[in-house]
C-alpha cells in the first residue's frame, strides 16, 4: 500500500506524502498545480502564510469537489506583516476559505515570539478552539523542542525539517529525539541532490538503486529514501507525469544496503562543498586570492540570507 498514513500523538493522521506549494509563482498557477496534484492522487497540500498563495491553493481544494475530510491541509505561521498567531490563522483560514486546517505550524523557531513557551501556548489555544486539528513546528532543533516540551500541555504533532541525504548525518539526532517523543518528522526538499547538487556523491548509489528497481526515475529513489527514514515526505512538481511517479514511489522499497550506500555518500557532503573550498584560502598565501575567497564567502552568505528572506517573505525579519 503506497504512502501509508502516519498517526499523530494527538490521534489524528497525516497522509505519507504531501504536495508543497512553495516557489509556485503567485496567482492562478497555484490553483492549476494544486488541482493537478489532487487529480493524480495527492490528498495532502502544504502551504504557508509566507508563500502568499493560500487563496489560490484553497480555490483548488474547494474546486476539487472532495469532501473536506478527504483532504489534509497544512499552513504555517510565518510572522508575515508582523501579525500575531491568532490574527494570522484567521487570515489564513479566510484566504483558504476553510473553517479549519488539519495542521498549523510555527514556520521557524525565530518566529516563536516573544519566546517558544508563549508562542506555543497560543498554538495550543487554536487547537482547543477547533481552528486547527493538529499543531506542530518547523525547522526546530532538539534544543528548541526541549524548550517547547518543558511547558507544553500538548506536544507538537510534527516537526517539518529539511531532510535529504546530504544533511541526514546532521539531522540524525533530531530524528532519534523526535521518534522518542512521538513527533512525526516531515521531510522537505528531499530532492536536493538532484535540484541543487547534481554530480555529487549521492548520484551513484541513487542511480544504482534506480536501475535495480527497473529503471525508475532517480527522484523516486530519493522519495523512497526519505520514507525509509520514517518521514512524511513533502515534495512538488509542475509536471503531471512526475507527480504520478511520486505517487508510485510509495511502493518502492530500498534494501538496507542501498540505504546505507546513500547515507554514506551523503555524509561525504555535496559536490564542491563551498565552505571547505573557501577555508582552503587560509593556506593560499596570496593576498589577491584571499580577497577573492573572502568576497566569494560574503557573496555566498548574502545569497543564503536573500534566499531565506525570499522563502519567508520580504516583510519578515528572522535573520
Ligand atoms: N518548512 C519549511 O521551512 C520548508 C522549506 C522548504 C520547503 N518546504 C515545503 O516542502 C515542499 C517541497 O520542497 P522542495 O520544493 O524543496 O522539494 P523537492 O521535492 O526537493 O524539490 C521539488 C522540485 O524538484 C524538481 N525535480 C523533480 N525531479 C527532478 C529531477 N530528476 N531533476 C531535477 N529536478 C527535479 C521539481 O521540478 P519540476 O517542477 O520541473 O518537476 C520540483 O521543482 C515545498 O513546496 C514546501 O511546501 C517547507
From TrEMBL:
The chain crosses the membrane at residues 291-312. InterPro entries: AKR, AKR3C2/3, Aldo/ket_reductase_CS, NAD(P)_OxRdtase_dom_sf, NADP_OxRdtase_dom. Belongs to the aldo/keto reductase family. Keywords: Membrane, NADP, Oxidoreductase, Transmembrane, Transmembrane helix. The active site is at 51 (proton donor). Substrate binds at residue 107. Residues 17-265 form the NADP-dependent oxidoreductase domain. This is NADP-dependent oxidoreductase domain-containing protein. The keyword tRNA-binding does not apply. GO terms for molecular function: oxidoreductase activity, acting on NAD(P)H as acceptor; oxidoreductase activity, acting on the CH-OH group of donors, NAD or NADP as acceptor. SUPFAM superfamilies: NAD(P)-linked oxidoreductase. The record marks 76 as: Lowers pKa of active site Tyr. The keyword Nucleotide-binding does not apply. It comes from Hebeloma cylindrosporum. The lineage of its organism: Eukaryota, Fungi, Dikarya, Basidiomycota, Agaricomycotina. It comes from the Eukaryota. It holds the Pfam family Aldo_ket_red.
